[in-house]
Amino acid sequence: MILSGRHQEPPGFALLMVVIVLLVSLSAVNAQGRADSKTQFVDCSLLVAPEYPATWPTHPFPRFQLIHEQAIGPNSPFNIDVLLIDGNTGTQMDVPPHSVVRPELNREKSGPFGLAFTDKIEAWQFGGEACVIDVRDMLDNAPNGVSPLIMPAQVEAFEKQHRQLTFGDVVLFRSDYSDKYYRPFPDGHRYIADVVDRLAPGYPDPGPETMEFLATRGVMTLGTDSASMGPMPNLAEPTHYAGLRHGMIWTEGATNLSQLPPTGAFYCMLSPKHADGMYSETRVFAIVGGELPKRLIESTRNKRAVDLSPTLSMKMPVTNPGTLAGRHRQVYVKVDFLYSPDLDLWHHTHLMDATAGTHLVTPSFALPSEGTAVEYSPQVRGWLEEYEARYGKRGFSSRTTEQVPLEWTCGDARVVDVRSLVGTTDRAKWPSSPEVTVDRLKAYEKAHGEFSPWQIVIFQTGHIDEYLKPAPDDKGVWADPLAGKTEGWPTPGPDAIQYLRSKGIRCVATDAPDLGGVDPRRALMTYWALGSADMVGIEFLNNVGNVPDKSFFLFAPVRLRDAHASPGRAIALH
Known about the structure:
- The structure is a single chain.
- The protein has helices at 13-29, 152-161, 177-181, 193-196, 208-216, 236-244, 292-301, 378-391, 438-448, 463-467, 479-483, 494-502, 520-532; strands at 40-43, 65-70, 80-86, 92-94, 127-134, 149-150, 169-174, 205-206, 221-224, 249-252, 265-270, 279-281, 283-288, 305-307, 333-340, 345-353, 359-361, 410-417, 435-436, 456-460, 491-492, 507-510, 536-539, 552-557, 565-573.
- With 574 residues, the chain is of the alpha/beta class.
- It folds into 2 domains: 13-30 and 356-573, Glucose Oxidase, domain 1, CATH 3.50.30; 91-303, 3-Layer(bba) Sandwich (Glucose Oxidase, domain 1), CATH 3.50.30.50.
- Strands 1-13-11-5-7-9-10-4-12 form a 9-stranded mixed beta sheet.
- A hairpin with a 4-residue loop joins strand 15 and strand 16 (345-353).
- Helix 1 packs across helix 12, helix 8 packs across helix 13 and helix 12 runs parallel beside helix 13.
- The longest helix is centred in the first third of the chain and has 17 residues, at 13-29.
- The radius of gyration is 24 Å and the shape is globular.
């Protein structure tokens, strides 16, 4: 929360701080932030960190790398991270082109779903009702290097005990494998490497017959807490093809499935939207208890979903190019490393800034950790003195991506249309962004009802919708506004951030490139205000205008340890 010790307080500021303190106290009592206190979020994702077996261990699959490219100091007021991350990292999502060949190749395994890459899967398919099939009796019950097979009989036994599976269900195979074996090295070799080397029993997995059986039930989404949906040593591809040819998608490397009931929970997987991806790193979670799961399950069964994330592509301006030489963020790069002749595709990894495309910014993005002595540049020191004189002491934070609760980034959507601000700045003062003021927020509340705690406030600027285009028409997103050739996108100022925090808002989102805007001084103050209030931001959305009233917003970043920002995927269910 915002700290005291300011040099000068504006009128009413002390009362505002009292309100914020009360709301923070209340959030500690009701951490779920829901009308129904029985609702809980269950994180089913593995932690991604270098000392864990997060990547496929055989040559030439690349290892995950988190590079702290810049730290808060004289050269940067932000903690800037770069990622080298393969789609087979940690908890991951497979889509049909992993095994189904593109139709134009006219091969034996060609089919229409050979074009269903990660950026083409419709948003409704990411979620549904979790149906947890308990196969714990199969764990370690096989020879070294061999997977015990989950067969249709076990699925039918689940149906006999509970109900018949149907369209809209997410079938989850629970063996507790990842819970037991996903450990830091050297113990972590047991997770995948020892199975590949036939030093330990394989992980339980469904055989091809089981995939065909589930297809007859209309199941389109699955998951396993094994390291792969592919039985070892030689049924991985047959099982993959048997399911993916029907258009299925699934989670590999889920965890914590013991916290889900056999039926009734809402399960969701949200992955960065990589262009032409055969698979992707993902974040999966479940929502259990209360009325919310029923509401979300009903939405996905009826395909009422809106995708809010633009596609990540080397052809698109998805990262900040900066305004001076050497100040750009790491561009988004697709790196081919292994050719698959059967698919006529390359396996690939990505090198990218952690804020590429739709992403989360944490409090630690702009705040140093407690006890850190920061030496800002003289210019930024002046901005900090100005900020603290008006808004109070800039805080500290060590809250990185993995420490942001999922319930902070999921909630009832409140879309605040600020497109009328476009064109309201003085051209002579560019680069500048129109500012969303407290008065505008109050006017919105007067017309649409007051903000409630834990809602997700989304600013609709229309900027990404209008300007996200491939080169050579790519300057409108970042380059021209940053250079002062065009107006910047509308952004909330620190006053607006503090007002929203006083209303119990924990997450603010935008369909603009970022929440800061093109004026570096004002942008930094907005991020200081967000961090000091222990709020998070979601940036680079699109399609926000298609979010109906009474929609539920879902966003989840990849679970990266020690990352100050992280890519993810946003959808809305209605």
